[in-house]
Each structure stands twice: as structure tokens, then as C-alpha cells.
Amino acid sequence: MTMPMPDDHPLGPPADERSWVRVATELAAGFAATTDEADRTARLPVENLRALHAGGLDQATLPRELGGQSLSYRTVGAVLRVLAAADPSTACLWLMHIGAAEGLVRHGTPELARYYADELIAGRRFANALSEPSGGNQFLSPQQVAEPVDGGYRLTGAKRFVSGCEIADHFLVNALVDGQPTLFGLEPDHTVTFEPQDTLGLRATRSHLVGLNGTVLRSDRRCPPSPVPKPNHIAAGLAWLSLGIADTALDTLVRYARGRTLPSTGRPLADEQHLQFDVADAVLRLEAAALVAHNSAWLADRDSPHFLPSALRAKPTANRVARDIAQLCLQVGGGSGFVATSPIQRIFRDAQTGWLMAHSVEFCLNHIGTEVVRAPGEQP
Ligand SMILES: Cc1cc2nc3c(=O)[nH]c(=O)nc-3n(C[C@H](O)[C@H](O)[C@H](O)COP(=O)(O)OP(=O)(O)OC[C@H]3O[C@@H](n4cnc5c(N)ncnc54)[C@H](O)[C@@H]3O)c2cc1C
């Protein structure tokens, strides 16, 4: 549908990792069969997550020294795009899973890193419990304070939209400790509760409100402060979720337009020139958004200081394209796409989520705009 990236393109997955994209592509073909049913019933696609683990993808994301393959951000991006095109909820759950595990492995002491790597290899599930109800975009600067108690810090509060929380064996949680944002690994006990939120899009992620009711964050699961921000899967990966949704929106609208004959002309809807112009515009924007994401992943693989600014560009660019192509898909589907049994309404709802997820499009635009218009040397 869009121009394929040549295999030897430097921004694409490295040659020795392309087999992982093939693994994901084969699995995704099976996942697509249950996407709409899992969305309708808001059921966690646990079997998909198990298949990704069994296929070796979870372990491959770990650093080599911990038994993984140090999979590049370029490859993880391509994998996420393929998964999101087939089942966006599965892709989101997998991203949060490997992202939380990466956080605990990377920020932990060597002993903790080994522990969490072994847990990921053994098939345990990870989730991010970072966003607070008072302001999800400030998830790196928590407001909730954990008070010192024997063996750790007690936290009473809540985390919002925690994808896959009900099956998580480990949470990556943050809280204010001595006035500093501090990360912990948390194994849920009876003090951790789940309150359904039933999000409008990505329903199968079951991104619930997690209550922490006097929960003790153990000192021996506390991550030491991180010296410098590094590329990470979630910052790098969110753009790719939207690209996958945009791929499916484009594919769906073109198939529908080819198959729908207009009674007034006796010709397929696809023959209408206004639609061809809209589709051409969608293709151009999707190809451009994909290149921005590929470039950002390439910067992440080089551990470049330009990665974070590039991720703040890649994400909103992809989020907007997904939302706009899903809107066009709904427009082309007309009334047939606006009924609960149509995959088009599900694609339309799923396409809204990337925009909201932190950092939201407005947050990114605010950041970029401020940087651009500020006078040289002027402080924010
Ligand atoms: C399907 C789904 C799955 C998710 N999964 C997870 C998960 O697994 N773990 C997790 O921790 N979180 C998860 N989230 C939460 C997500 O990452 C965001 O934190 C959350 O969606 C944002 O919450 P909010 O809208 O309440 O944020 P708010 O920050 O309150 O934003 C409200 C509004 O203010 C705007 N705004 C905020 N800050 C700025 C700014 N600086 N400049 C300009 N505008 C601004 C926003 O754009 C938005 O319009 C998920 C969310 C969704 C929708």
C-alpha cells in the first residue's frame, strides 16, 4: 500500500535481526482473527502474549549479557507496527510489558537486573503503573508520596490506565521518595486493587485504575537514580503503534472502496477522483510519518542525544496520521462502518488512543513549539 523500505536500508531492521520481523508477521496473521472479538468483549488476548513469549520475542529484547539479543529499536519498531496492524491491543500490551521489564532491568542493581531478566525469560508478565489520575502526562514526575516504613515505603494512591494490570506479576511503579521521583518493582499483593475503566479504544488492553492501598514498595526493589535519560522501548515504540493502526485503516478503506459499487454510476467507489486524492494524501503522510519514526529508532540504536527530541516528533506525527486515516476510513465506510459489527468503528476508536497516550500530541507540540520560538539562551 505504501512504498516498502528496501531490506538493506540503514534505517530499517539490521540484516541479522530481520528474522524477528518475520516471526512477528507470522504470529500477527493469526492474531488478526480474534482482534474484533477481543475488542467487543474487552478480553485480554492472553494467548497472543503467550505466543509472542514462546516465539522468543520477549527474551530477544533483553541485553545480550542477560541472555537476550539486544534487539535494536529499529527491529522492535518494525515488530510493533506489524503487531499493531493486526491487533493494536496486543501490540500495546506487548510494548508495556517489554518496556516495564526494560525499565526494571536497566534501572535495577545488577542483582535486580538478573532477577527481572530471569522473570521475563520465564514468562512472567510486566506492566507499567506510572500515570497518576491528577495528570497522566507528568508520569515521570509523580505527585504521590511514599512514606518510609520498615523494609520500604508505604504508598496510598492510584495509577491510571495500567494496560494488562490483571495478569501482571511485576509492576514498574514510581512515587515521590524524599522529594525525588523514584522507581520501584512491585509484586502485587492484597493491597493492590483493580477498578475497570473500559477505555473507548484499545479495549482489550483492560487498562484499569490500579489502587495502591497502603502498599509497601520494598527497599530491595528500589531502583537507584538513573544518571542520564536513555532511549527506552516505550518512548521509541508509541509511534509504531499508530503507524500499524494507520496501515490497517488505509488497507481497510481501499478494500471497501474497491468492493462498493455506487448505484448512481454503476462504478466502484474507488473510481471517484476525490477519494483517489484523499488516498494519495494519506499515503504521502503515512510514508513521511514512517520515515520520521525510522529515523528516531535509528537515533535510539546509536544512543544519540537527539533521540528524545526525535521521539517527541515521531509520536505526534504518527498519532495524527493514524487518526486522520481512520477518519477517512470511517468516511469511506459510511453507515456500514458506523455499526458495532464493523471493524471500521474499532479502528476509528483505536486510532484515538495514540493521541492521548503520554506524551500526548498537545504535550509534544507544546514542547517543540516552546523550543523553537524561545530566544537563544532563554530559560523555559
Ligand atoms: C489505552 C491506553 C493504555 C495506557 N496504558 C498505560 C500503561 O500501561 N501504563 C501507564 O502508566 N499509563 C498508561 N496509559 C496512560 C497514558 O500514557 C497517559 O498517561 C494518559 O492517557 C494521559 O492521561 P490524561 O489525559 O489524564 O493526562 P493529562 O496530563 O491530565 O492531560 C489532559 C489534557 O491536558 C493536555 N496536556 C497535559 N500536559 C500538557 C502540556 N505540558 N502541554 C500541553 N498540553 C498538555 C493533554 O494533551 C490532554 O489534552 C494508557 C492510556 C491509554 C489511553
UniProtKB/TrEMBL annotation:
<dbReference type="GO" id="GO:0050660">
    <property type="term" value="F:flavin adenine dinucleotide binding"/>
</dbReference>
<dbReference type="InterPro" id="IPR037069">
    <property type="entry name" value="AcylCoA_DH/ox_N_sf"/>
</dbReference>
<protein>
    <submittedName>
        <fullName>Alkylation response protein AidB-like acyl-CoA dehydrogenase</fullName>
    </submittedName>
</protein>
<dbReference type="InterPro" id="IPR009075">
    <property type="entry name" value="AcylCo_DH/oxidase_C"/>
</dbReference>
<feature type="domain" description="Acyl-CoA dehydrogenase/oxidase N-terminal">
    <location>
        <begin position="26"/>
        <end position="123"/>
    </location>
</feature>
<dbReference type="InterPro" id="IPR036250">
    <property type="entry name" value="AcylCo_DH-like_C"/>
</dbReference>
<dbReference type="InterPro" id="IPR046373">
    <property type="entry name" value="Acyl-CoA_Oxase/DH_mid-dom_sf"/>
</dbReference>
<dbReference type="GO" id="GO:0003995">
    <property type="term" value="F:acyl-CoA dehydrogenase activity"/>
</dbReference>
<keyword id="KW-0274">FAD</keyword>
<dbReference type="Pfam" id="PF00441">
    <property type="entry name" value="Acyl-CoA_dh_1"/>
</dbReference>
<feature type="domain" description="Acyl-CoA dehydrogenase/oxidase C-terminal">
    <location>
        <begin position="235"/>
        <end position="354"/>
    </location>
</feature>
<dbReference type="InterPro" id="IPR013786">
    <property type="entry name" value="AcylCoA_DH/ox_N"/>
</dbReference>
<dbReference type="Pfam" id="PF02771">
    <property type="entry name" value="Acyl-CoA_dh_N"/>
</dbReference>
<dbReference type="InterPro" id="IPR009100">
    <property type="entry name" value="AcylCoA_DH/oxidase_NM_dom_sf"/>
</dbReference>
<comment type="similarity">
    <text>Belongs to the acyl-CoA dehydrogenase family.</text>
</comment>
<keyword id="KW-0285">Flavoprotein</keyword>
